[in-house]
Amino acid sequence: MRTLLAVAGAVAALFLTIAMLGTAGWTRPPMAQQQTGFRGTAMDVIETKANKAAKIEANQAPAPADPAEPGGEKASAVYENVKVLGDLSADNFNRLMASMTEWVAPEQGCTYCHNTENMADDSLYQKRVARRMLQMVQHINSTWKENHVHEAGVTCYTCHRGQPVPKNIWFENPGPNAGHGVIPRNNGQNVASPQVGLTSLPYGVYAAFYAHKNTPEDAIRVNATSALPETKGKPIQDAEKTFAIMISMAQSLGVNCTYCHNTRSVADWSTSTPNRVAAWHGIRMVRDLNEDYMLPLSSTLPPNRHGPMGDVPKMNCATCHNGANKPLNGAHVVEAYPELAGPVASADMPAGVPVQPATAPAAAPDPAMPAPAPKP
Q1: Which stretches are tagged as biased composition: Low complexity (predicted)?
Q2: How far is CA 52 from each of CA 47, 56, 187, 198, 255, rounded to the nearest angstrom?
Q3: What are residue 256's phi and psi, to 5 degrees?
């Protein structure tokens, strides 16, 4: 009798479980799939349609301001102390200033950068930084046009998204115990860091790979370039850093590894997608911008704008991309603002910084790498 009751109970439990699973609405959500590589290699970006729609909505480019009337006096003749874009007409200059207010400080308004009782006054650090950022935008749109930003270009909104301080910036990471005066003994890892996808991989990779233009060309690569070892290989810690920066790039662009790589042979350029070429140049663009435009602002930005280690805010891939594989969904934002397309206008610079920084590298040291990146 007990056996019969046990069997009956098990059957009843099975039917109740099936009924629960069958009526709970647990079905796979609609998926969106984008092929990025060769057919049959499973090189696809796969995500839910809801997630894709949310990313598209979060990366809408703002409508450009109405064009200014042609002609008129130059801004440098109408206003005092115009050190950048003084060759624009006064009307076009005002159009750009109004757009910058909407792009960067819509709540604060003009007073975020200007003393409205004396617009020529340079006492606010925000105004001095804004000049340099205008030059940086021109530099990106001119020097990096062919190899990375192409015809889409960038404006202040690409990074700022209506906020005075862009959301996706980084400072040197002092480690989890820095606030207690204790030096961390974790080898710079084993902490669930958002920068590297909440993994325990090294969390200081931005400083290692994104801060300086003289970063060695093989800093990220850990694969051997020959079938048999010819020199001493890199330690496992370097491989962990490479995995960390790749994870960071993937989440910055909202993609997976196969967006750039054929995972059959991750290091092989000949089977990689053109996106890998664009990423190669993008890494070098970030280093260029951080060294020539962000680091020199150390004496301009007040202490409260510095990080816990005393360094200035810097960029990474997410600063522009914001989780989308093309910033602002690939919108050609610079077309409506040709004055931001370059060349770089002159102005007072931080000491030691050239007016026109060095041009972007044209090709990678790896002879198998295709270059330049194709235009979208």
Answers
A1: 351-366
A2: 7, 6, 37, 22, 11
A3: -120, -175
- Preceding amide of 343 cis, omega within 30: yes
Which are the contacts of 359, defined by CB distance < 8 A and separation ≥ 6? Answer: 143
The label of the residue with tokens 């995500």 reads: 47
Using a cut of 0.70, tell me whether the model's pTM lies above it: yes
Q: Give the chain's count of helices (H) and strands (E).
A: 10, 2
CA dihedral 194, 197, 198, 203 (to 10 degrees): -60
Pairwise CA distance, residues 373 & 243, whole Å: 23
CB atoms closer than 10 angstroms to residue 217: 11
Angle at 290 between CA 95 and CA 343, to 5 degrees: 45
Taking only the tens place, the pLDDT of each residue in 239-267 is 999 999 999 999 999 999 999 999 888 88
Residue 235 contacts by C-beta under 8 Å, 6 or more apart in sequence?
Answer: none
Residue 367, class by beta-carbon neighbours within 10 Å (0-12 exposed, 13-18 middle, 19+ buried)? exposed
CA dist 369 and 371 (Å) reads: 6
CA distance 98 to 339: 14
In 3D space, the residue among 185, 198, 295, 196 whose CA is nearest the CA of residue 242 turns out to be: 196
Note the pLDDT tens digit of each residue in 153-191: 999 999 999 999 999 999 998 877 655 556 667 778 888
Distance, in Å, from the CA atom of 316 to the CA atom of 209, rounded to the nearest integer, reads 10
pLDDT digits (tens, 9 = 90+) for 308-319: 999 999 999 999
88-131 confidence digits (pLDDT tens): 999 999 999 999 999 999 999 999 999 999 999 999 999 999 99
Average pLDDT over residues 230-234: 81
Nearest to 103 by CA among 154, 165, 161: 161
CB 149 within 8 A of CB 335: no
Longest dimension (CA), the chain: 103
**pLDDT value of position 43:** 82
What are residue 32's DSSP bridge partners? Answer: 47
